[in-house]
Amino acid sequence: MKKKYTKKDLKDFKKIVLKKKEEILDEIKHISENTLKKSQKEASGDISGYAYHMADVATDSYDREFSLVLASNEREMLYALDEALKKIEEGIFGVCEDCKCIIAKNRLKALPYAPLCVKCQSKREKK
Prior knowledge:
Elements: H1 7-36, H2 40-44, H3 54-90, H4 105-110, H5 118-126
């Protein structure tokens, strides 16, 4: 295993991870408020007492399903960010889970929850 990141580096990465986590929580809140809490009638903008057109109902259902998938993906990313925070606290952040080498700073700045270096990630994707 190559050298670990310094305490200053870990502190900087912690800021990045916490900022990303805050952004995702805001996105989930936005999705929840704009999609999941509204009735189908409110979501479509139709507040009249008239029946829905089938195409409108299908579009609204698709939009809700799409929003649920987005929220689910955001929650998975939150889990990964929580794992990154745990690794920061343990002093093992930025170490590739496969080869145990240090993950490049540029990669961690872009994907602060990355558990693998680029080389190992590429190997896994080829499998």
